[in-house]
Amino acid sequence: MKKMHVKRGDTVKVIAGKDKGKEGKIITAIPADGKVIVEGVAVAKRHQKARVQGQESGIIHKEMPIDASNVMRVCSKCGKAARTGVKVLDDGSKMRYCKKCNAELND
Fold first, then answer.
1. What is d(CA 50, CA 65) in angstroms, rounded to the nearest whole number?
2. CB 66 within 8 A of CB 42
3. Which of 8, 9, 33, 100 could cysteine-pair with 82, CB 3.0–4.6 Å?
């Protein structure tokens, strides 16, 4: 298992690749491959055949996985893409924070 700097539900900005500059929410994180699926980013067309009666066939738009190193977490306070750090609190729990504005990132 690889350790990832982002997780499902985080709002991220794409910093590299064909969709550079787009923002979206992480739908799925795949730590084994080091990839994430971001809503509205890396959309590909897939031809789908109807497998059961009533299922629609045709061309569907599907988000494809991109490497986690190509995305950066967007801070909710300053609104910018920033690196994140981890602080260990007095009670032993961990908290992520924005390295630009030092704001606490709610998980």
1. 24
2. yes
3. 100
At 69, list the tokens.
Answer: 């190193």
CB of 24 closer than 8 Å to CB of 40? yes
* Whole-Å CA distances, 64 to 33, 35, 86, 93: 13, 10, 29, 34
Spatial CA neighbour of 72 closest among 100, 32, 43, 94: 100
pTM over 0.70: yes
- Beta-carbon neighbour count of residue 71 at 10 Å? 29
Write out pLDDT tens, residues 36-76: 999 999 999 999 999 999 888 999 999 999 999 999 999 99
Structural domains in the chain plus CATH codes: 1-74 (2.30.30.30), 77-107 (no CATH)
* Phi, psi (rounded to 5 degrees) for 47: -85, 120
